[in-house]
Prior knowledge:
Helix content of chain B: 55-70%
Oligomer: heterodimer
Mean pLDDT of chain B: 82
Strand content of chain B: under 5%
Radius of gyration of chain A: 22 Å
Largest sheet of chain A: 2 strands, antiparallel
Distance between the termini of chain B: 11 Å
Distance between the termini of chain A: 9 Å
Largest sheet of chain B: 2 strands, antiparallel
Largest interface: A-B, 58 and 57 residues
Structural class of chain B: mainly alpha
Order of helices and strands of chain A: HHHHHHHHHHHHHHHHHHEEHHHHH
Strand order of the largest sheet of chain A: 1-2
Amino acid sequence: MNLAIVVGVLGYVCILHGLALIPIILYACTWEHAFILPCADTMFLSLLLGFWAWKRYKHLALRNHWVKDYKNMRNFTIREGIAFLGCGWFLMTFLGALPYFLSGLFTFPDALFESAAALTTTGVSAMPLGHGFPRTLLLWHVWAQWLGGIGTIIVFILLLPRLGAGAGYLFSAEVQGASAERTMPSAMTSAYIIFTIYAGTTVMEALLLRLAGVPTLTSLAVSMATISTGGFTQLNNFLAGNKSLLVEALLIIFMLIGSINCVLYYRCLQGRFSLLKKDTECKWYFSILVGAFLVITFNLWSSQTYSFLEAGRYALFQTVSVMSTAGFADVDYSTWPSFSRLLLFYLAMIGGCSGSTAGGLKISRMVVLLKICKNEIMRTAHPHFATLLTMGGKPVPSTAIGGVGRYFFLYFLVFIVLVVAYSLTGFGILETLSTVVNCLSNLGSPYSLIGKNISYVGLPVWNRLVLYFAMILGRVELFTMVMVLSPGFWMGKRSW
Amino acid sequence: MNVKIVCFLLGRLTLYGAGTLCLPFIAAFFYGDAGRAFFGASIMLTATLACLLLAYGSYDKYKETISNREGVATMVFAWLLLSAVGSLPYLFSGSFDVVSALFESVSGLTTTGASVIPDVEIVPKSILLWRSLTQWLGGLGVIMIFIVLLPQLSGSAVQLFNSEFGGFSFNKMLPRMKNTAWVIFGIYLILTFAETLLLMCCHLNFFDAFNHSLTTVATGGFSTYNDGVAHFHSPLVEIVITIFMFLASVNFTLYFAATKKGLAVFKEDDEFKAYVYLLVVLSGLITLNLALTKGGVLADNMRLAVFHVVSFSSTAGFAAFDYDQWPAFANFLLTILYFTGACSGSTAGGIKISRFLVLMKIIKAELARVLHPTMLLKISYNGRLLTVPQLISINCFFFIYVASIILFSLLLAATGVSMNESIFGVASCLSSVSPGVGLIGGMSNFGTLTAGGKWVLIAAMLLGRLEFFTVLVLLRTEFWHSARRW
Lengths: 496, 486
């Protein structure tokens, strides 16, 4: 492995991280002077680290002649790509934790947790809810969430033209899911396009929310949290206090927009709207949503939890919020009947569409898995039956089919390991399941999907660590992350 | 689809079902309990049904046309029919409604061991014996009897034998299947009688010892007492049962092979090694967890840990202690065993260790492929190379299993059952373990469920026992279009 290159690129990331703090510092200068120092310190540290790493990389690369023409960076192979991706996440969460930690309000594990919750668009908080989370930190949280939402990588994709063969891999790992078609011209262009769409929808939502009467800063924060399908629990009292149907409707629309494959918007920009209708994943996503919404409405109504209209309203909002893994909650659903909550729990595990900022297993994988099963059932009756699996009319290659099955098993395995690890400190069964899913799917709901409501305040350090890993594992493509966490990856001497 | 031949086979099977019913009938006379009437009526009814089926069906004319389709249909309907036959004595006893009787019968035949009887200690002994017998027969697999009793069926029986007994196993020894079947039957009998003897040495009376042996060897888990094995307060009994649960959860074809090639076959079998390894690790972890959180005597903790680990992995589901009181960590570890189950080719349910082994190997291979995308990978199991369709099929099985848990737990929750009870109850019924947590936990029973809830679990138990595909294929309309023959 060519560590020097990894370090060098990570240096770039640090520099960008430092620059990302500028708007936050400006806000602190204007409104909350107490937070200038923590943020400025972090920025200084990030920049320092970044420039040092970059310089070191350049130096090393030139000295050892690893790269003759370092602008092409041909040595940036898959192995380096994975190392970069893994280390990048850990480094970013570490740097992102510094403002929280330096402000003196958080212990370090709490700060790290908070930072991971932001970057992975989970949106849980280690601070008590509704107790005046400092505005600067709140802004930093949603801002990090917004950046993390597009997959921090997509911002870094701006660097990728400098990289070689590994670049394509990075892109496929970040905008994950079994997308059968190779959709966009080049990593660079696609990064720009996705970034524009992402920023555009955010601004649009902020404007609409402002028009609906939400204060400027809140509308900005909420829209950043919505489009990144993060949904910050500290923002939740805004929803609970603001019982406006209009605001809820806006959130529903934008949560949906945030959880649909970005590529489709790109197609729409090209004027090919028919693709939006034809997209298999999209169809499934909406069918599942509508089905779950109807069933939950009926369940809430028949169990006399709410009147019919209220049931519909809450059911719609919660279904969309959970499935897009935003995790906003306009009502405490821990009192709902067990059927509805269990359904929400499973929906959270499935998550939204691939190529979006939503977490979970992704609809496309579920669709492929269901189709495999259909074929497999056919083969029980007719063992020599030749089967073909298609998505949207196009055959899916057999390697991709196998890959989805494997991914599902690995997801399950990771889930079990996390659950067992989490329960070590003596948490109950349902609470453990619900907390782990909350983090692994990057949902970040303030209420427990199943079991009693639990607070993320004052968790033991061990549980913080487990959840920290859950969030990161859920965010990055699993095989990549498991690879980074396995010692063999780092110790392997063989270079292919 | 050739209905006549399916009817013929089902008729034969029902006839043997009626024959089996005679055993508790005799026992009822022996113990002088009220069972005489129930069993007499059941035998009459079953025999009539068998005659009707035999009269309608015919064999010789159609035996050339038996295909995979008839095989699949026969198997699924055999389970349904035998479940119905098994529920007759319960129904006639008058203390069960239809769904409860069916639940008890399905739970028996699928070797699940979930009971709806609130107090088994006041139930007539003949009924208890019937309960245990259904498990014993179910554990053997109806199809095993099929092969033993219907030698004519050899051709298409291969497919049935595989899907029923093997799960996923390569020690099928197809050429002399009838022979294999007999040997397995013999091993099953020996295990049963050996355990009865040993339990009687532990001062159990014959009835208790026999019943517990029947249900242990079948890895079913019905007991003649409300609090199960905990009733005896005897570490010795627990140890004996642990040993036999373990023996019953090992691939039976390994025993067959061991008679020819010696004990080395155990050492060479990947699945057996992985299974033992899993048991040791999980027992160790749970012992440690119990020792750290609850304190107490180490030997007791270890015994209980091993007992429950073996009980859950073999999917017998005996409980020697109310494990609901254990920490969540220990409970989660036990839950993992719902999924893994034990070795293929045993009487245990669940996904089976062999499948998990292959799944783990796939993951390992895939991790290598992340780095080297064009690498060619070979995945082998017990020295044999697996083909891509086989791998996909295993992945698919795993997915169906998890998807079924999701679907059935939602249905169960819709009947008003709480969340953890629905998740774990369904998982345990699919794997034929039986006790879940909470109200349907180790020290309780399923009697509190609503009728809807019972139907859901009946479906789950049957699906899990028949390993999904066989049942699901019947749900496809395409299957019934008899015009097309493949």
